[in-house]
Write a structure and sequence with these properties.
This protein is an all-alpha fold and 183 residues long. It has 8 helices and no strands. It starts with 6 loop residues before the first helix and ends with a helix.
Length: 183
């Protein structure tokens, strides 16, 4: 039996008292999700176009290392689902080398994208403040339900630098998107 869609149902399954309030909230959430997805797709399209036009020679060892990292991530995801990589390879007939070869095109795209965005960071002198880094650490703390002060203790100088570069790269993406809208 399905419950009747009425105010009582809405108040039982949500924080809203009426079905109309609940529907309005759902509509707002769907519109926000759609807007975020559209913005992300726009960012991806702009960055992809810029990267497509860039001429970069990727050193083979760099690509190999990226493939290795992707393989490690893949193995961790498989393991978290209860399937060791070795067992997966037995079932599928795959080898480590075949998997790395499958990862190679994505690894090259990832590296090329990162390098192009890092060059834009340099060319545009994009910088981030210590406050912005701290704010990002606080977001991470909230996501992991850890006290911000504790999270700041966990984040060392190297991780702070990586976080700063990630923020700069996002600024570079924002710069590209804003520039693309002007044209």
């Amino acid at each position: 039996d399905l419950p009747e869609l009425n105010d009582e149902f809405a108040s039982e399954i949500s924080q809203f008292e009426t079905l109309e309030e609940y529907k309005a909230d759902l509509k707002k959430q769907l519109e926000e999700a759609k807007a975020k997805a559209a913005a992300a797709q726009n960012e991806n399209n702009v960055v992809e176009k810029v990267v497509e036009n860039a001429e970069i020679e990727l050193p083979a060892p760099m690509v190999d290392m990226q493939c290795e990292q992707m393989l490690d991530d893949y193995a961790r995801r498989m393991q978290s689902q209860g399937l060791p990589l070795e067992q997966y390879m037995q079932y599928t007939g795959m080898t480590v080398e075949k998997l790395k070869e499958q990862f190679r095109p994505q690894a090259e795209r990832n590296l090329k994208t990162r390098l192009v965005l890092e060059e834009i960071v340099k060319a545009e002198n994009i910088a981030v403040s210590e406050e912005a880094i701290d704010a990002e650490i606080e977001k991470m703390a909230a996501a992991y339900k850890i006290e911000p002060a504790k999270m700041k203790e966990y984040v060392g100088a190297e991780q702070r630098e990586e976080l700063a570069m990630d923020l700069k790269i996002q600024e570079a993406v924002d710069f590209l998107v804003a520039d693309a809208k002007l044209q």
